[in-house]
Specification:
heterodimer; A: about 140 residues; alpha+beta; Bifunctional carbon monoxide dehydrogenase/acetyl-coa synthase(codh/acs), Chain M, domain 5; 4 helices; globular; B: about 450 residues; TIM Barrel; Rossmann fold; 3 domains; six-stranded parallel β-sheet
Chain lengths: ~140, ~450
């Protein structure tokens, strides 16, 4: 997330750091609502599109979330604290498989979505209660 | 370098208090980085963070404005090393040097020549902007300054005597010349002249360290309108210094070198063509103001074009305003042509129509700066758009015939266009603008 990979802006998702949660959220193009980072997908796409490199902001594909390269420098999938429900459901099968691989089979239930909250303050108690691994990881910022 | 959102975010209170109007501190940092909101909107920012952030977000190279309202030029203000990283902002003004060693006739000749070199290209006026007047202690300095001032161009005043400079500056009422106190000058003296006149001043030395020391002292005294001049004796050193200064300011964060840079090919050689080559290099590589000893059309024009090419914003295609253009004095039976609004396309097509000497109407469709074929491929030049514009411009009231000439390369939309414009005949024009004159000469309504 320090020197993020560039994208033209047609990426399927945008990942953003959530400083309070010490983690990363991601949002897919089809999710039109507000997100915990305070910006909607369209605003986020504007910050990374056109080959712009903005530390803390990363354009990626849905498929990429369950690849081993996803957020490799930040500790991988364990960093993911929030994603829209529709996206979670869509990739659930692969998500569960990948979580098994990294030794956190219950991670999918620890990742918050809009039904939990759309601000960092709303999702933090949820993450704490479920002991999300990101909270224990080294500080992002 | 512009601040990244996370750099700004680190200094914010991270409370997500929402008083700035944004839902999170990160969203606010993002907007500040984009220049869409001000740091001051954060109510909880500590004084220390405020100071550090405003320092870091100020531009790496200062912008200095010269001239009057009419002849205004900006020097410096650049933010990148290469144009493709963003854009270059301020084209370096080009000028001539009137040294006292020249005869009165020669000075008049150079002035007159310089002022007559004005070119109109692609809707822009291209010309040299600056006259440098140099005092060599022969007592004619002020008289020459007056002559130069009367041309209305920007001035660079060079003299080893502080009093002469101040007097010359007084002549230039209502405009801002650049002052250059020549020779080995103590920094204190520079500060005095700059403060007495409130004008930008040149800082010169033969080493970059020397320049950096002087600008540091001057800016501590509040004198910040500075232009730096590295004295060099070869073109190699000139290039080296220009690159080092820009790199230090942009990448090294060296504030002491974050000023516009003066380059004087006139001081490197007497041969005008060699000077021209040096000027070419200085324009391409980071000079903010370029002074040659003299200029003629064949020398100035290529330099102006080089400058135009480099300093045109690559992020925006040049476009002409959509609408109906009259070329010559078209009558009720004049031909009607249609084209895209890419500037180059417009200028080539309208140029060829002029060449044909057949007065005509040219309908320019807004294709967002794309050329005809590109616009067609992107669906920005289509039958619907053309038909709408035909109705909007009320061309039907201006001509008696109902024939529209379509660029030959977009023959594919002719059928659709006939459907969109009942009663109109769509005629295919040439595929290339070069054949427009022949086409129009044979055209009959």
């Amino acid at each position: 997330m320090v020197d993020p990979m560039t994208t033209c802006g047609c990426c399927e998702c945008v990942a953003v750091v959530l400083p309070l949660c010490n983690g990363v959220m991601t949002v897919n193009r089809d999710y039109k609502g507000d997100t915990p980072c305070g910006m909607k997908f369209t605003t986020l796409a504007g910050t990374i599109g056109g080959g712009k490199q903005t530390p803390g902001f990363l354009g990626h594909s849905k498929f990429n979330i369950t690849q081993n390269k996803f957020l490799a420098a930040e500790g991988g999938l364990r960093r993911l604290v929030w994603m829209p429900k529709m996206l979670k459901d869509e990739i659930m099968e692969r998500l569960q498989k990948r979580c098994q691989e990294i030794g956190c089979p219950d991670l999918p239930e620890k990742i918050a979505d809009e039904t939990v909250g759309i601000t960092e303050e709303q999702i933090l108690p949820f993450l704490q209660e479920r002991k999300h691994p990101a909270l224990e990881m080294e500080p992002l910022i | 370098m512009a601040l990244k959102p996370l750099d700004i975010f680190k200094h914010l209170p991270k409370t997500n208090c929402k008083e700035c109007g944004f839902p999170t501190c990160l969203a606010f940092a993002m907007q500040v980085a984009l220049g869409k909101t001000e740091l001051a909107n954060c109510t909880q920012l500590s004084e220390e963070s405020k100071k550090r952030l405003s320092q870091a977000s100020s531009p790496p190279i200062r912008t200095i404005t010269l001239g009057s309202e009419k002849s205004k030029v900006n020097l410096g203000g650049e933010t990148v090393m290469f144009r493709h990283e963003k854009t270059f902002y301020n084209p370096p003004p080009i000028g001539i040097l009137l040294s006292e060693g020249l005869s009165d006739e020669e000075i008049d000749r150079r002035l007159e020549k310089f002022c007559s070199l004005i070119y109109e290209r692609v809707g822009l006026t291209l010309q040299g902007e600056v006259i440098a007047v140099e005092d060599k202690g022969q007592g004619r300095f002020l008289a020459t300054v007056k002559k130069a001032f009367n041309t209305g161009k920007c001035l660079l005043l060079i003299s080893p005597e502080a009093e002469n400079l101040i007097k010359a500056a007084e002549i230039c009422q209502g405009t801002k010349p650049l002052l250059f106190l020549a020779g080995q000058v103590p920094t204190e003296k520079l500060a005095q002249v700059a403060k007495a006149t409130s004008l930008p001043i040149v800082v010169s030395s033969n080493t970059l360290e020397g320049i950096a020391k002087m600008t540091a002292v001057l800016s501590d005294q509040g004198v910040t309108d500075l232009v730096i001049y590295p004295e060099v004796n070869s073109v190699g050193t000139l290039l080296k210094n220009l690159v080092l200064i820009r790199r230090a300011a942009i990448h090294g964060g060296v504030r002491q070198l974050g000023y516009p840079v003066l380059a004087m090919p006139a001081r490197l050689t007497d041969d005008l063509l060699t000077q021209t080559m040096y000027a070419c290099l200085a324009i391409a590589k980071y000079a903010s103001l370029v002074i040659l000893s003299d200029l003629s059309g064949e020398i100035l024009f290529p330099l102006l074009l080089e400058r135009l090419n480099l300093f045109t914003d690559p992020q925006r295609p040049l476009a002409t305003v959509q609408g109906l253009y009259e070329i010559g004095q078209p009558g009720r039976d004049a031909p009607l042509l249609v084209t895209s609004n890419f500037s180059l396309t417009y200028f080539i097509v309208s140029g060829e129509i002029q060449n044909s000497r057949v007065p005509a109407y040219l309908l320019v469709v807004d294709t967002e700066g794309l050329s005809v074929l590109t616009a067609w491929a992107a669906d920005k030049l289509n039958a619907e758009k053309i038909a709408t514009l035909v109705k909007q411009t009320k061309i039907e009231e201006k001509i008696d015939h109902r024939t529209l000439i379509l660029p030959g390369v977009v023959a594919g939309i002719a059928g659709e266009l006939e459907e969109e414009l009942p009663g109109w005949k769509i005629l295919l024009g040439p595929r290339e603008a070069a054949y427009i004159p022949v086409f129009l000469k044979n055209w009959k309504p």
